[in-house]
Amino acid sequence: MTSSATTPADHPLRARRTRVLRARKVARSLPLLPSIVLIAIFLLGPIISSFYGSFTNSALTGAAAQNPSFVGFDNYVNLFKSPGFPGAVILTIVFIFGSAVIGQNVVGMLLAALMRSGGSVVSAIVGTAVVAAWVLPEIVSAFAAYAFFSEQGTLNNLLSLVGIDGPNWLFTFPMLSVILANIWRGTAFSMLVYSAALQDVPPEITEAAEMDGASGAKRFFLITVPMIRGSISTNLMLTTLQTLSVFTLIFVMTAGGPGTASTTLPLLAYQEAFKFSQLGYGTAIATILLLVGAVFSFIYIRALKPEVD
């Protein structure tokens, strides 16, 4: 009878093998060390500095500008007591869901499907028209959107041709205007991501489902979507984080108004930090914004992570 028990002589051999494997892992990680250092300096460093600044009374002017003091959680207490903070949070979430989660992703997917099913001419026209808005500098896109939605702008001039007297969109529907403008500007990214993802879907699978009688909607939701789930997760996270930090577009179009009707968290942080000179208070708002982005990222990673067999 042969025993499978490990002899004492095997223990040094196993320990040596473990040390060799660890040394190999360390050696493979060494080329990544410069990147880790750069990430720590240029990404983690500002985050830590910003987080600490949110616990001070730092300001642009006065004694606190030269010698800020540590005030603990006072900025956060005052922030949560502020009557304008809950509204800014709600408007930020509305802006994210309207223009990123729903708008850019749905429109981007539809455009990608159109480019795939259409001919080369259709793909070229659609791709050029959509990408043109994306490659424009944000300030140029913001002024173009302002000119389109303003009271005497392009949209109302077009509506007047069919006998409709359009409202002042930036005053009457400020959030709707900035949501549509952000969809127009950012959809190209989602379209390119989904176009690349759809190219990786084997056509024989969808053709087999079509031969079995599956409709176009069933083929899309039961076959295509599960196969590009990873791309959907990644795109949702990226578009959400990009939309969460949108400032210039809203600032140029509405400046957060009328009143606070379109004041999202980035605009509230700007107003408190640079308009009212309360850098510590504005940094606390920016920290909350960072936490909101982390929550969205965690939800996407957990809910849409591809299943592992």
In summary, what is this structure?
This protein is 75% helix and 0% strand.
The second-level CATH architecture of the largest domain is Orthogonal Bundle
Basic shape? flat
- Helix fraction, binned, reads over 70%
Strand residue content:
under 5%
CATH fold descriptor of the largest domain: MetI-like fold
Number of strands: 0
* CATH superfamily heading of the largest domain: MetI-like
**In DSSP terms, counting alpha (H) and pi (I) runs of 4 or more, how many helices?**
16
Output the structural class.
mainly alpha
CATH first level of the largest domain: which class?
Mainly Alpha
What is the typical, i.e. mean, pLDDT? 85
Distance between termini?
Answer: 38 Å
Integer count of domains? 2
Low confidence ranges: none
Short key terms for the protein model shown above:
single chain, about 300 residues, mainly alpha, MetI-like fold, 2 domains, flat
Description:
This protein is mostly helical and 309 residues long. It folds into two domains: 10-53; 77-303, MetI-like (MetI-like fold), CATH 1.10.3720.10. Helix content is 75%, strand content 0%. The chain has helices at 10-29, 33-53, 63-66, 74-81, 84-117, 120-135, 138-149, 154-161, 169-172, 174-199, 203-211, 216-227, 229-244, 248-253, 265-275, 279-303. Helix 5 packs parallel to helix 10. It is flat, with a radius of gyration of 26 Å. The two termini are 38 Å apart. The model has no long low-confidence stretch (mean pLDDT 85).
